[in-house]
Amino acid sequence: MVAIILVVDDDEPVRVMLARLLSTAGYQVHACANAVEARAWLESNEPDLLVTDIVMPGDSGIELRRFVSERYPRVPAILISGYSAEEPAEFAARQPDTVFIAKPFTADELLELVERMLPEEKLPRPRRP
Q1: Comparing C-alpha atoms, which of 94, 113, 127, 107 is closest to residue 49?
Q2: N or C: where does the chain have the smaller number of CB atoms within 10 Å of the terminal CB?
Q3: CA of 23: how far to CAs of 40, 51, 110, 126, in Å?
Q4: Does 28 map to a domain?
Q5: Short-list 108, 88, 97, 89, CA closest to 22
């Protein structure tokens, strides 16, 4: 079964772009505008991967990552941000199965990270060249 990816970003154009990119690549995607929406969805769903912006109104992506880690310890995460990369990169380095990517990034960079974070059986078929 193909991976379910939870995308969380308060910037609607970015959220829509990420969701389209990942769904076009063959993944199932659920998109949320903030951590509150994501937590509500997480009450009854377990994603295979979390892709979240860090700087959002309310709880940050880092706080959301901590919540997901407590509830679903095996779910990896990709943290994204257009702001200073020092603190999020340090946080990601200390967390198992967590990586950081700075905006702007290319579609290929994100898709390569997603493939690296997921087990082989969760990747869509056929795979990207």
Answers
A1: 113
A2: C
A3: 22, 13, 13, 14
A4: yes
A5: 108
Structure tokens at 26: 């063959």
Report yes or no: 10 and 53 within 8 Å, Cβ to Cβ. Answer: yes
Q: What is the CATH number of the domain that holds 103?
A: 3.40.50.2300
The total number of structural domains in the chain stands at 1
Q: How many residues does the chain have?
A: 129
Domain that holds residue 114: 4-122
Give the pair of three-digit tokens for residue 75. Answer: 């779910």
What letter represents residue 22's amino acid? L
114 found inside a domain: yes
CB 61 within 8 A of CB 43: no
pTM: 0.91
pLDDT in tens, 65-105: 999 999 999 999 999 987 755 565 566 556 779 998 988 99
Residue 127 domain-assigned? no
Rg of the chain over all Cα atoms, to the nearest angstrom: 13
- Cα–Cα distances (Å) from 25 to 28, 97, 109, 124, in that order, read 9, 21, 13, 7
Is residue 128 in some structural domain? no
